[in-house]
Amino acid sequence: MKNILKIVAFFVTTSLVISCSDNYFDVNTPPDAIDTNSTALKDVLSPAIQNTFDAQYSASVSVAQVSQHISSALSNQDIDKHYFSGLDSFWFTTYVKALANIKVVEDKAIATNSSHYLGIAQILKAINLGLATDLYGDIPYSEASQAGLIPYPKYDSQESIYAAIDGLFTDAIAKLSVPNTSIINKPGKEDLVYGGDISKWIKAAYSLKARYQLHLSKINPNAAATNALASLTKGFTSNADDFQLVYNTINTNPWYANQLGLNTGNISFLISNQLINVMNGKSFPFATVTMDPRLLAIVDIRKYPNPASQTTNPDPMVVTNYNGIENGTGANIPGQPGANAKIGIDFFYSKTNSPIILMSFSEAKFIEAEANFILAGGNASSVGTNAAANTAYLAGITANIDKLAVTTAAKTAYIADASISKGATALELKDIMRQKFIALYLNPETFTDYRRYNFSPNVFVGLKLPKNTDPNNNGQWIRRFVYPNSEKSTNASIYDANFKSMITPVWWDK
Q1: Minimal CA–CA distance to 346: which of 253, 246, 239, 277?
Q2: How much is the pLDDT for 22?
Q3: Fewest CB within 10 A of the end CB: N or C in the chain?
């Protein structure tokens, strides 16, 4: 993996394709931007990648509250209580920044016959469309790239978007699997994810393809599982393949920047008790160990501000010192009775140089485990599966623990616990999804898993609606987000024709 280039290196390029127009994918440059025609292909790939990860983070801030990885520490944070939300910042980052930059990469790659750049651009496009359609349902796509010709693009059905995503991954794999014949040099350091290693991009395309194939498990579970397993045979093979963006001390990880308020006592997020309880033995009682050793790597229970000066910080080795917050309460803050578990500013996911992980080898193994579980006749309440599911399940746990640099002794003891290594005949879906939930900490993919299994407490032990949930939802879980305010003001007729409530399932969720 290559560390992200210094922020100065691509700030200018990022601004190249942000237009003042409201049209999607509009790449008309604003008056103060450099002409994209004079910009080299390698100069536009970095911002396309960064914007893709920016969109992932932007979604995660809200979706991780719905998924109950985190909870708002503020009583007026409405998304924590499932109130009306259009994820406006995510939509803007996706359409105006990420997809617009990707369009420039595509156009330049086609013009120069740069098949490897084009393959990467197609993967990035599929990623952005995939997250957007999973959060909103129908979205602009086929008419969205027409710039001034179609100022009010239609919304394509989610079913057609899913077909397009699968096609993009397939086309990208084909382009990346043959030699690049362009006169343009192959991707190098401007590739912020893999540093120009095309073989890793191919693995990523197959693994991401498997993710979206398994999303269709409610439509046809056996077909979804079979297709996902076929893709995974050519996907990630180790943590070294993880699709992630590694930040640095100049361009810092956004979760780190978000949590800097900890130093002044201004808390925005605490850790949900849903996450704490699946790691401390409450939701899944342990046999011999007392806690999941990953708690030490991802959860901060120190007092703030100025934790280094405190002499009475709770002992992180004592499991009862980890107290999560119930989503929707927003009243407890560190230093007062109640929740004390925080993201922190020097933990695995939230240091200055921490990665944003879009998809990991660990997730791929849990997809493999679930797919095999399904094909062995498993369901939300059944017990027992085949050896392949159990092997993949244990491999997913191992991969995530290794990713978080847990000590060998602690890893060995945890995996050996009878509540973890249950064996194929006793393995349940809830075991697989518990471990996937932990491994996907702060990743919006968990929201998709919840919907695929209808928020079942049999599958997601301990899961319940947040306190003070929006009464307009009639006691139901939200299953999508509404379109943002920008759509309502600039594309009103299309907005009105496509509007769905937040409790309305998306196409694959029915």
Answers
A1: 253
A2: 37
A3: C
Bond prior to 31 in cis (omega within 30° of 0): no
Which position has the higher pLDDT, 350 or 259?
350
* Three-class secondary structure of residue 256 per DSSP: helix
Residue type, 79: I
Q: Kindly write down the DSSP assignment for every residue of 436-493, as one continuous string.
A: HHHHTTT-THHHHHHHHTTT-TTTSTT--PPTT--GGGTT----S-PPPHHHHHHSHH
| Sequence-ordered strand ranges (E) for 317-354 | none
Inter-residue contact 42 to 187 (CB < 8 Å): yes
Report the amino acid identity of residue 501.
S
DSSP, collapsed to helix, strand or coil, labels residue 139 as strand
Helix and strand counts by DSSP (H, E) for the chain: 18, 6
Q: Is the pTM above the cut of 0.90?
A: yes
Looking at this protein, which amino acid is placed at residue 93?
T
The predicted pLDDT at position 183 comes to 76
Greater confidence, 460 or 303? 460
Q: Given 3-state DSSP classes, what are the helix, strand and coil percentages for the chain, each rounded to the nearest 5?
A: 50, 5, 45
Residue 395 token pair: 């491999």
Q: How far is CA 52 from the centre of its chain?
A: 11
Length of the chain: 510
- DSSP H/E element including 410: helix 408-416
Q: How confident is the model over 454-506, as pLDDT tens digits?
A: 999 999 999 999 999 999 999 999 999 999 998 988 888 999 999 999 999 99
Eight-class DSSP state of 31: T
Q: Are 470 and 84 a contacting pair, CB within 8 Å?
A: yes
**Residue 300 DSSP code:** B
Give per-residue pLDDT as tens, 116-136: 999 999 999 999 999 999 999
Question: Per residue in 434-453, pLDDT tens?
Answer: 999 999 999 999 999 999 99
Residue 405 CB neighbour total at 10 angstroms: 10
Cα 109 from Cα 114, distance rounded (Å): 5
In the block, tokens 């249950």 appear at 422
Average pLDDT on 228-234 reads 98
**AA identity, residue 494:** I
